[in-house]
Design brief:
Layout: H1 3-12, H2 14-25, H3 37-53, E1 57-61, E2 65-67, E3 73-75, E4 79-84, E5 92-98, E6 118-120, E7 123-125, H4 129-148, E8 156-162, H5 172-178, E9 189-192, E10 203-208, E11 210-219, E12 225-226, H6 237-245, H7 269-277, H8 282-289, H9 299-307, E13 311-318, E14 329-330, E15 333-342, H10 348-365, E16 371-380, E17 383-384, H11 390-403, E18 408-412, H12 419-426, E19 429-432, E20 448-450, H13 451-469
Parallel strand pairs: 5-8, 5-9, 9-19, 10-18
Antiparallel strand pairs: 1-4, 2-3, 4-8, 6-7, 7-20, 10-17, 11-15, 11-16, 12-14, 13-15
Bound molecules: ligand L7UNP4BN and zinc ion (ZN) (2 copies).
C-alpha cells in the first residue's frame, strides 16, 4: 500500500481541489428555496459529471417530485449513484453525502459573498463549503488519486449523493428501499462525512440526533389589520402563537411538553466516563459562541445536552412583520416554525402526537376564536452506532496514520436524516468520519472549510479505504 505516494499526489493537487470546491460553491443549490431548483438540478449534473470523468459507472436516479404547500408539485433533484470496481473478492463501501445547502445572503451578515469561495488565511469561506461540498469532493478526490496513480482501489467504492438533505432528504427513503436488493446488495459498509470535529483533534462520530420540524399555524382575521384602528378589539394570532410557543421550553432549557423528557435513554456511567475523558474547553466554546453564559458550565452536562438530550429551537415566524422599519400591523395569519432534536429512545411519530396534543391543550386554555393547525413536516430519527464495530477500529488506525494521534469519539448534535434509514433498511453498519472543523459555522454566516481539513481529510479518506479493506469478513 503506497500511502506516501498517494499523500504526495494529494499535496501536489491542492490548488485543483480548491478550484473544484470554488466551482461547486458557486452553485446556489439551496434545497429549501423552490426558486433555486434549477441550480440544484445543475449541481446534481455537475456531481455526475465529476464522477464520470474519473470513469465511474454513474446514474442519475429520478426520485419523483415534492408537494408544495399551494398544492403544486416540484421535481426533486435526482440522486447521483456511482460505482468504482465490482471485485467480489473485495469489500464494498458506500459513501453518502449531499450537495444541497442552507440559505445564505450577504446581507445576513456574511463578510464575503456566500457563493464566491474566498480564501482568507487558509480558510475557504462559502455556503456549503464544509456542509457538505468539500467532504463530498474529498471522497471523490480520494478515489481519483488511486486511479491517477494506477493503484488498485483496496475496496469497491459506491457513492450516493443527494440534493435534499437540508430539508429532510425527501424521496431518499423510498429510493433506498427500492434499491435494497440491487445497489445495496453487495454493500458491506456505509460511510458518512457530513459533520465536524469537536476540537482541533480529528474525531469519529457514533451518533446523531434526529429532528422533528413543525409548523404551528394560527389564523385569525381575514386580512392584516391596522393595530391602532382595530388593536384591542380582536384576539391577535401572533399573541396566541407566541403564548403557546412559550410553553414548550423553560428559560433554563427544560422541555415542558409532557412525555418528551421521560422517553430519553438514561445516561449510563460508561457514557459519563467517556464524556469526562474528552478534552473540551467549555470556556473557549462559550467565547466562540459569543455568549455571556451557557446553559451548562460543566463539560459533561454541556456535551450531553449537545449530543444526547432533546432540545426545542424556535426558528422563525412566517407572516410576521420582520423587515427593517416599524409597520403597525396585526398579522392575520402566522406560522411558527420550530423543531425538536430528538435522541434515543424518542420516536418522531410519538413526538408528533405529544407536541400536537400539548399545543392544542394550551391553545384551548386561551379560549381564542382563532384557528390552530400543527403539522410535522420532517420526522428524522436519531442514529447510534456500536463503537466496538471494526469500522471504528479502522477509523482509529487511519487517523493514526494521517494525523499521528488518537481521534475523539463523539456524537453529533445535528441530524443526518437518512442515517437511520440506511441502517434499518439495508442492515449495514455505518461510520461517520468527519473532516469538518469544529468552528466551520455550518448553517451560519461565514461558513468555511479550512484548506488543512480539506487536504488532510482527503488523505484520511485514502487511508481509511485501505484500513477498511483489512477488516476480516464475519
Ligand atoms: C449535520 C448535517 N450536516 C446537517 O446540517 N443536517 C441538517 C438536517 C436537517 C434536519 N432537519 C432539517 N434538516 C440539520 O441537522 O439541521
Ligand atoms: Zn450536511
Ligand atoms: Zn446542514
Amino acid at each position: 500500500f503506497k500511502l506516501d505516494e498517494l499523500i504526495k499526489y494529494v499535496d501536489s493537487h491542492e490548488e485543483e481541489y480548491v478550484q473544484a470546491l470554488r466551482e461547486w460553491v458557486a452553485v446556489e443549490s439551496d434545497s429549501s428555496d423552490v426558486t433555486k431548483r434549477e441550480e440544484l438540478h445543475r449541481m446534481m449534473d455537475m456531481v455526475a459529471e465529476k464522477l464520470r470523468k474519473i470513469k465511474g459507472t454513474v446514474e442519475l436516479v429520478d426520485i419523483g417530485s415534492q408537494q408544495l404547500p399551494d398544492g403544486s408539485s416540484l421535481a426533486l433533484p435526482k440522486v447521483v449513484v456511482a460505482q468504482f470496481g465490482s471485485d467480489t473478492n473485495k469489500a464494498t463501501v458506500c459513501v453518502y453525502g449531499h450537495v444541497d445547502v442552507q440559505p445564505a445572503k450577504k446581507e445576513d451578515g456574511w463578510a464575503t459573498e456566500p457563493y464566491n469561495l474566498t480564501d482568507i488565511n487558509g480558510n475557504l469561506y462559502g455556503r456549503g463549503a464544509s456542509d457538505n461540498k468539500a467532504p463530498v469532493l474529498a471522497w471523490i478526490h480520494a478515489v481519483e488519486a488511486y486511479k491517477a496513480l494506477n493503484l488498485d482501489l483496496p475496496v469497491n467504492v459506491k457513492f450516493i449523493i443527494e440534493g435534499m438533505e437540508e430539508t429532510g432528504s425527501n424521496g431518499l427513503d423510498a429510493m433506498i428501499e427500492s434499491k435494497k436488493d440491487s445497489f445495496f446488495s453487495d454493500v458491506d459498509y456505509i460511510i458518512i462525512s457530513d459533520c465536524g470535529w469537536l476540537s482541533k483533534r480529528p474525531a469519529l462520530t457514533y451518533g446523531t440526533r434526529g429532528n422533528c420540524y413543525f409548523f404551528a399555524e394560527v389564523e385569525g382575521p381575514k386580512q392584516d389589520l391596522h393595530s391602532g384602528v382595530y388593536g384591542g378589539t380582536v384576539i391577535e394570532p401572533m399573541t396566541d402563537l407566541i403564548g403557546i410557543l412559550d410553553t414548550m421550553i423553560s428559560p433554563s432549557g427544560t422541555i415542558l411538553i409532557p412525555g418528551i423528557r421521560e422517553a430519553v435513554a438514561p445516561f449510563s456511567d460508561e457514557e459519563w466516563k467517556m464524556y469526562q475523558d474528552i478534552e473540551f474547553d467549555v470556556e473557549s466554546y462559550r467565547t466562540k459562541m459569543g455568549v455571556e453564559q451557557l446553559m451548562y458550565s460543566n463539560k459533561v452536562e454541556l456535551l450531553a445536552h449537545r449530543w444526547r438530550h432533546p432540545t426545542v429551537s424556535i426558528h422563525g415566524i412566517e407572516g410576521a412583520f420582520s423587515a427593517p422599519g416599524s409597520k403597525t400591523v396585526i398579522p392575520a395569519k402566522v406560522i411558527g416554525k420550530f423543531s425538536i432534536r430528538q435522541v434515543p429512545d424518542m420516536d418522531p411519530a410519538v413526538v408528533e402526537k405529544q407536541v400536537s396534543d400539548h399545543l392544542h391543550a394550551v391553545f384551548a386554555k386561551r379560549k381564542s376564536p382563532n384557528k390552530l393547525k400543527v403539522t410535522m413536516i420532517i420526522g428524522a430519527k436519531p442514529w447510534l452506532a456500536d463503537l466496538k464495530h471494526p469500522l471504528y477500529h479502522a477509523g482509529k488506525a487511519a487517523v493514526k496514520k494521517v494525523f499521528d494521534m488518537e481521534p475523539d469519539l463523539i456524537r453529533e448534535g445535528g441530524t443526518i436524516p437518512i442515517a437511520r434509514t440506511f441502517q434499518d433498511v439495508t442492515g449495514k453498519s455505518i461510520i461517520m468520519l468527519p473532516i469538518g472543523g469544529f468552528d466551520d459555522g455550518l448553517h451560519s454566516q461565514n461558513e468555511k472549510m479550512s484548506r488543512y481539513n480539506y487536504i488532510e481529510g482527503t488523505k484520511l479518506f485514502i487511508a481509511y479505504l485501505q484500513e477498511v479493506s483489512q477488516i476480516k469478513a464475519t
